Amino acid sequence: MSDRRTRLDFAQTIRWLVDEVYPDARIIRLVMDNLNTHTVTSLYEAFPPEEAQRIWKRLEVHYTPKHGSWLNMAEIEISIFERGCLSKRVKSFDHLWQHIEALASERNEQCCQIHWRFTCADARAQMHDLYPSPKIKLD
Does pTM top 0.90 for this prediction? Predict the structure, then answer.
C-alpha cells in the first residue's frame, strides 16, 4: 500500500495482486474506477513490455460507469467507512489499517447489501434522454 496514487504505485499494486495475493488464479476479475492511472499503460510505464503483458493477461478488468449505480454503491460504502473509521483520529497508518480491516470483516460477515430501489421506470421518468421508453411496433 502506498501513500500516493501514481501510475507506478498502481502498477506495483497490480503486480502484487497478481503474483502474491492470487498467484494460482488463472484469471482475476478486477472492478476498477476510471482514474487515469488505472490503465494498462501504467504497467507498460513501470515494467518491461513482456512483464506488463504477463500481468495484464491475468486480469479481466471491468471499469465502473462514470454515472450510475456502481458509482453510487461505491460512494455508499466509502461513506460507511468514512463514518466508521476514516474520520477519526488514529495513532498511525497501521492503526488506521486495523480499523479498516475490522470494519470490512464486520460488513462481510454480515453480508451487507445495498437494496436498490431505483427502477427502470424511475430512470425513464427522470432521465428520459438516456433511457427512452421502448418503442412498440404496431403491425
Answer: no
